[in-house]
Description:
By secondary structure, this protein is an alpha/beta fold. About 45% of the residues lie in helices and about 15% in strands. It is built from 15 helices and 14 strands. The chain has a 7-stranded mixed β-sheet, with helices on both faces. It has a 3-stranded antiparallel β-sheet with strand order 11-14-13, covered by helices on one side. Strands 1-12 form a two-stranded parallel sheet. Helix 6 (about 125-140) links the parallel strand 3 (about 120-125) and strand 4 (about 140-145). It is globular, with a radius of gyration of 23 Å. GO terms for molecular function: alanine-glyoxylate transaminase activity; L-serine-pyruvate transaminase activity.
Amino acid sequence: FMFQRRLYTSYHKLIKVNYFSTNNNFIRLTRNLSIMSSQQNHKLCMIPGPVEFHEDVLTSMSTKATSHVSPSFIPVFGESIELLRKVFVTEQGQPIVVSGSGTLGWDMVASNLIEPGEDALVLNSGYFGDSFAACLKVYGAKVTEVKSEIGDRPTLQEISDALSTKSFKLITITHVDTSTGVLSDVKAISELVKKQSPNTLIIVDGVCSVGSEEIRVDEWNLDVVLTASQKALGVPPGLSILIVSERAIQTFKDRKSPIPSYYASWAHWLPIMNAYESRKGMYFATPPVQLIYALNTSLKQITSTPLETRFEQHKKVSDQIKSVVESLGLQFVPKSREVAANGMTAVYYPEGIQPADLLQKVASHNVVIAGGLHRAIATKYFRIGHMGISVTEPERKHIDNTITALTTSLKELGYSGN
């Protein structure tokens, strides 16, 4: 609070100094002061996405109306495409950035890579495995699922057994299922698929993992990794982002049947991405200019430090939160810490505590956490997100405040723990 007050005073002085300079300066400083004032009443958004956004990311969106083919915007989009390769650790993968949610990534995979009647293997560790399977079926795929118990993930033996039954066009892996907080071992699965079914395309749903979990597209031989802007990439919702391998692009080019989608067709989007990366404007559908400015800012922040450092930061904070949860005598949704994600934590409510009571009590301490999402246990657990600046900038005290809010709330509701 004292920091905010000092900042408020500093802005007030700046406004006085600049009042007689230009109208533009006065308007800009007044707007910044207004934004800062509104943030004072903001509750920390500690759900598994959207996450808290850096001030510079938000400021970068505050641009005047800008054409998507403006000479000032084209290099920003082009650079963002290049920076995405660094984040996904790929040299050859083709980034695709499209207006939409992470769900659009499923449609892009299904409509561009699957033809009616082809087999797809879905590894299911929660709600989002269910949904990816449903999306593939819409486009005519014959889907086989390897399901696990709630809180667990398919074993390598179960995956191997499924691969031995038929030739699959592709396999989908939900890296982190946001509904359960379960983390899949993408590297090990990829090694298995490459050995046992080398022609099968490896698709990774990385919506809740890219930016917080280790992922290496080239080294792990991944064909598509899809994600969204609002989680560990630290950008407001609205961007669907994919990395597509050369092998996947060739598969798309070799398909026999028409692409059953207009907006999601890579026939439209690949030329757009190539044009912007070559610093040339091109039009198919209007990109969200301000969001791409924000993406550019966030990607620069992310790549300013080694990715290994970022992964370790998320693991360290995850261990901190999970240790607190264990000390409170609470039970995780994931069966073990080994299969639990580093960017979020899913926890069962203690006996006698009602979902709405805990969520509202935590919110009264200026922190927002999420309820359950998995259909079978939605009312039985809650979820905490810990990604992005909340993790990489500990001086903000987001994690400390969240832990305090949770422990205090449980105590106030009469829960005494162990």
